[in-house]
Batch of 2 targets.
Target 1
Amino acid sequence: MWLPRLVQVLRERKASKPVIWGIALSLCSGSILANDGVYVQLFQWQHNDVAKECEDFLGPKGYEAVVVSPPQEHIDKSNWWAVYQPVSYQLEGRFGNSVEFASMISRCHAAGVKVVVDAVVNHMARGDGVAGVGVNGAPYDPETLTYAPYADPQNHLHQPQCGVDWDVVDSVHECNMIGLPDLNTGNLETRAILRQFLKSMLDLGVDGFRIDGAKHISQQDLGWLLLDVDDEHIIYQEVVDFGDGAVRASDYIETGQVTEFLYSTRLGDIFHTGNLAWLADFGEIWGMLPSEHALVFLDNHDSQRWEDSTVLTHKKDLLYYMGNIFMLAWPYGQPKVMSSFRFEDKEAGPPAVGVHSGAGCYGDWACEHRWRPTANMVTFRKVAADAPVVNWWDNGANQIAFERQGKGFVAINHEDAPLVHTFDTSLPPGRYCNIINDDINNNRCSGQTTEIGSDGALTLEISPQQVSAFHIEAVEIGPEWLRGINGLYRITARHSGKALDVAGISHSNGANLHQWDYVGGWNQQWYIEDIGGGRYKIRARHSDKLLDVSGMNTSNGSNVHQWEDVGAPSQIWHIADAGDGYVAIINEHAGKALDVNAIRHENGTNIHIWQYQEGWNQQWQLTPVE
C-alpha cells in the first residue's frame, strides 16, 4: 500500500558494501565508467529514411548518434557487402545521392542526433575480378588496379598483390583482405585523396567515422588520414581481435575507440550456456580493452552472419533483448545498438522498400533499436551516467540484479522459475515504472508501478525469462512528492521559526549553513529550481551557489554548505509533504533530510543531514519572496 506521506521514516541508508570485483577493476584501470550515450547502427537504411527516423524516434528516445552505411559509389551488385567495395568517392550510392546525404545530416542534427559514417578507406573494389562500372558510372578494373580516384596504381595501391598472413604485421597492413585490392596508405598522394574524401563529409557536418577494416591500416597511417578530425568528432575503428594474430585491438586506442569483439562473443556464450552470475566482474579483467576505449555491441553486420556462432542477434529474440538490456545497464564501454534487416541468405542485400517508404518496422526490417526494452534502456543509460554498480545480487546461476547507485536498478531472470526477492537499494522512495514493459509519460506509467519504500527495499516477482528495470526518471510522482515548486523562497525551520542562512553572507565555496532570524538578507533567500522528475536544485540568491552536502557524504550529521554547481548528486534535493503546510527536504544522494542540529533554537545552530524521523527540526516552511 502506498504510504500516506512518502517521507515518513526515511531509512538510515547503509553505506554501500565494497565489492571485491570493483576493487580488482580499479587496480586494472582506475575506472570502468562508460560514456552514457548510445549509438545505433541503421544498417543499409536509405538516407531519407535515416533522416526521418532521427526525427520520429532516435531524437525523442535520446540516441546520441546514428551510424550510417558507406555512402560512396560502389560496385553494381545487390549483395549487402557491395557497398564495402568502393569504385569512387562520389557520394552517390545505394542509399541516395549527395543532396539526400547532406539533408540527412542536417535533419538528424536538428533532432539532436549525431551522424557517424561507415568509412571504407582500406581498399578498393574487386567485384567479379574483371572490369566493371560502379552504380554511378565510374569505371574500375581490379586486374589493372585502375580506379577513378587513383591515377598511379603502382604507388597508390600496395604491390605486389598478396594474401594476408595474420601472424605478420606488415602482411596484415599491406596485403589484400579477402582479395580486395589494398590501398597504400603510406603513400602521400593516397593519403591526400582519402583525407579529401573524409573532409568532404566533415564539411557537410558529419560528426565522425567508423573506420572499416582499420586492422588492415597501420595506426600511424590512420593518424595521418584523420588529421582533419578533431576531438569533437567520434572515431571508432573496426579491429577484429580474439586474442590471436600479430595485430591487436589495443594497438589502435590512440586513434579512437576500438570495436571489442570479445565483448559480444563472451556475452553470447554466457547467455547461451553459462551463468549470468559470472557477469559480476564483466569488463577489463576478462581480457578486454579498457572501458574508455571499447566500442561494445551484441552483434554487427558481419557477426550476424557468422555460422555456428553464439553471437546474440535479432534471430534469438529472448536472449537478444536480455543481452541488450544488460549491455545498456552495465557500465563498460561505449554501447552500440544494431538495427538490421531480416535475411535467410547471408549474402542478401537489404529489402527493396525502405522503412519509411512503405515497408515499416518489424517485418523485413527488424528495427531492433525500436524494441521497447532496448529503446527505454537508452534513457536508463543516460540517467545512470557514471554511477557505480552497487548491491549486486545473484542466485549463483541465471538470476541476477544490480543497482547503478542511486540512479537505477535491473533484475534479469534467465531461468524457468520465478524470481521472488526483496532487494536493498539506495534509490529514493517512490512508485517506479518498469521500463521493460511500460513507458513513463508526464510522470505517469502506462502500466502498473512497483513501490520502493522509505527503507529502500524493492520487492520483485519476475516471471521466468523476464526482466525488470527502473530508474529515477521513471517515477510516478504522487501527492506526497510536491510538484510545481519553482521560484524564490524563504526556507524556515518549523521548530524555531528561523531561516536557512549562509553564514557571514559569504560568497565562497564551502560557506556554512546555519539557522538565523529572518532579516530579509539575500543570503536567507533561495531559488528553488525544478529540474524534472521531482528533483530540485536550491540556490542561494546572494552567491548563486547550491545547497550541497559536504564531500558527498551520506552519514547522519554530514555537514551542509554552499558550493558552485558541479552537477553532483549531493546538490539534488527532493521536496516531500510533511503535513500542516511544511515539507521535508531530502538529499537525493544521501537519502537523508535537511536537519537543524540537536533541535536547537539559537541563532547560528548548524544545518546538517539526518535520517528523517518527522522531527520539527526536519520540517520547513517555504514562503515565496516577492
Target 2
Amino acid sequence: MPTDNYYIADQFSMLAKLMDIHGENSFKTRSYSSAAFTIEKLPAQLADMPPQDISSIRGIGDAIGKKIQDILATGELRILQEYVNKTPPGVIGMLNIKGLGPKKIATIWKEMEIESIGELLYACQENRLMLYKGFGEKTQENVRGAIEFHLQNQGSHLYAEIEAYAGSVQMKLQTAFPEHGLALTGEFRRQLEVIENLQWVTTIAPDALRQLLTTEGFAEEANGSLSFKGPEGIRLLFHCTDANAFGETLLKTSCSPEFMEAWTQRTGGKPAGVTEESLFTAAGLPFIAPCLREDPAILDEAMAGPFPTLIQPGDIRAIIHSHSNWSDGSNSLEEMARACMTKGYEYLVISDHSKSAFYANGLNEDRIREQHALIDELNRKLAPFTIFKSIECDILNDGSLDYSDAILSTFDLVIASVHSNLKMSQEKAMMRLVKAITNPYTCILGHMTGRLLLSRPGYPVDHEMIIDACAEHRVAIELNAHPRRLDMDWRWIRHALKKGVMISVDPDAHSTEGFEHTKYGILAAQKGGLTADRNLSSYGLERFKAYLAERKKARGI
C-alpha cells in the first residue's frame, strides 16, 4: 500500500482542492494545502515517526496528525473519500486540465452545470466560457487547447478528431511504399462516430513496416498483432496480406462482427473473387458500402435490389440550425449569410438561443424583434439569398416551449431542444420531449438525447415513441452534425424513414467555420441509409418555403 510522504501529501492536496470546489471554509482548505506542502518537503518518512512527533511538526497539529495516522493505517483519507463520492468524476478530472484551478472549476460546475471534460470542450467551442466572470477569450482558448491535449491520450477518438491524422499516416505509407496495396479499413472505413484504433490492409511486408514506423517514433506493441502507438497515443493496426487476398481481407476487416457472421453463413465464407466488388458479385449481391456493413439485416435488403443513392456532401443546399453573435456565436448575421453564399448555399436558418438559455445570451422578446428587423433588412440586401427567422427554443422542465404562442408565431420555424435539467428519468424525458413535439410551432426536434460523445451519454429516451410522435405531428428530427453530438443516433434513422419522418442534417454552427461540421453529419446519415430527398437541409429554397407553408397549414398555424 503506497503510504510514503508523496502519497500522503497528494491526499491532502486533493482534499484541499475538492473542498475549494465545494466552497468550503477557506481556512480549512488552506490548512490542508499547507499540510500537503509541508509533508512533501519532510526529510524523513512519516511512516517511520511516532504519532506524537507527527503532530508536533509545524503546520500539522493534532487534527491533521490523526488523519495522517488513518492514512498510514488504512491507506486512505476518509474525509477525502466523502468529497470524492459527492463530486462528479468529470469535475474531478478537470483538475488535470492546465489552467483550471478549483475556483474556476466551481464556476464551471455550479454555474454552467458542466460535469465532464468533454462537455467543457463543447462549451469552449460554443464560446460559453466568456460569458462568465474570470473567463476571457484568452482563458477560453487556453482551456480548449489544454483539453484537446489531455484527450489525445484517452484511447478513444471522435472520427473528426482522428481524420486528419489517418490521412497523414496514409500519405506517409503511400510515399514510402508506392508500389504496394494500402487501404484504410476497420471502424474508420465504416464511418463509426467513435474510433478505437486505425486499421490498414496492406501488401507491405511486416518487417518493412516495423523499420519505417519505429524510425518515425512509433513503438510496436507486444499484443500478438502488428500494432504500433505513436506520440499521439493513437493505435495503428495492420493486416498484412498478399495481392490475391487483398479484397477478401479488406471485406473481412470493414464489417461489424455480426455482419461478417451473416455474410459467412450466406456465402460459406469461400472467397470467389479478388476485389471486394467481385466478392459481392459472386455472392449474388449488389455492392454494400462499408458504412452500411453493421446490421446483418442489410444483406436481406440488398437481395431486394440496389440501394438508393446515399446522401452526399454536395446534396446540402442550406445551413439549418446556426447561431450568431446575437447569442453565443462568433460571427454576425451578415457574416454567417455571406459565408453561406460563398459556399453556394441558397439560404440560412438562423436559430439563436431562447431566453431561458441565459448562459448563452439567449434572446428575450425585445431582442427577437430587433433581430427580425435586421433579418428583413439583410434579406433585401442579399436577395435572392434568404435568411429564415428561427430560434433554438428551450424545452422547459414541464415540456412547454420558452415563449408564448404570440412570439413563436413570428418565426418561420422553431427548433425545440432540451438544454437544462439533463439528469432525468426516461419517463421525465419522454414527457418533456413528447409535449414539445405536440406543440404546433415545433418544426424540428433538436439533438434528441442531448448526448456528447465520449463525455455524456444523454438522457434515456424511447426512440420509437419519439419517432411516432414526430410522424404524427409532422416534426422533423435533427441529426446534429457537430462531431461531438451526432444526435439523433444513426441507428434509428431507418426506423424514422419507415415512419415517414424527415431528417435534418444540421451543423449547429456557432461560427462560419462550424459549417464544415455538416460533413460529419452526412457520414453518420449515410450509415443510417439517408437519401437527399428525405433530408430537409437538401431542399432548395423554393421547396423549403413550400414545405414550411404546407406544414403550417397542416398544423393550423
